[in-house]
Amino acid sequence: MTVALARRALAEFVGTAFLVATVVGSGIAAVRLSPHDVGLQLLENSLVTGAALVALILALQPVSAAFNPVVSMVERLLGELDNLAAIVLIASQVAGGCLGAIVANLMFGLPAVTLSAHHRTGAGLWLAEVVATFGLVLLVLATLRGDRADRVAYVVGGYIVAAYWFTSSTSFANPAVTIARTLSDSFAGIAPRSAPMFVLMQVVGGLLGLAVIRGLHPATKDSPEPSALDQGAVHD
After folding, report:
1. Where does the protein end up (predicted)?
2. Which structural domains are found in the chain, ordered by start?
């Protein structure tokens, strides 16, 4: 592994850890602060997550700010990553996400790991994950191909806050975050048996986003495929 790849892996590990700690931690805090109002709990959870995403992408973008295996998968398909880099970055994202969930549990006095009993299943939720991930990949790549890399953080943060509300699944849109959220039996958790279908639908959504962006912004010899990872991309 090169030094450059190691630095990117560290950025992905730390960034995804903070992202999941934000999602899980704010979910736990929301339930405790607003125990009788689920709508307010979701509002608190979504706003905090969106704000954290903006901050994390802005800070880590110069090194690597994907925090999402679907984004890394898309980068591999675009030829911006080789197999080793994709594997290392995705592994870092998943490991960082799991650490973030554990830390969030501990911060709120819960066991380090408690598998979630929150089952999330059904055609509507699966479709929602396709839509959420499709939208995320589409907006990230469209922003980058429009030479507006400096705005990616705001695009991602704003989109995720909105997607929490307009998708029935509350927009997981990230396999690393999905896996990590199985480790917390809290507001943001997802039962382990529900996670595989969520991840599959996220991959489908990512591939659809890639297909559409290639139609909207086809690469040419004079306009090569941009690297979303190098310029910052995500999610939740």
Report:
1. Membrane
2. 3-231 (1.20.1080.10)
* Cβ pair 131, 211 in contact under 8 A: no
How far is Cα 198 from Cα 201, in angstroms, rounded to an integer? 5
Q: What is the mean pLDDT of each run of 10 residues along the chain (236 residues)?
A: 94 98 98 96 97 97 96 93 96 98 98 96 97 97 90 96 97 98 96 97 97 84 47 49
Beta bridge partners of 220: 223
- Cβ atoms of 74 and 227 closer than 8 Å: no
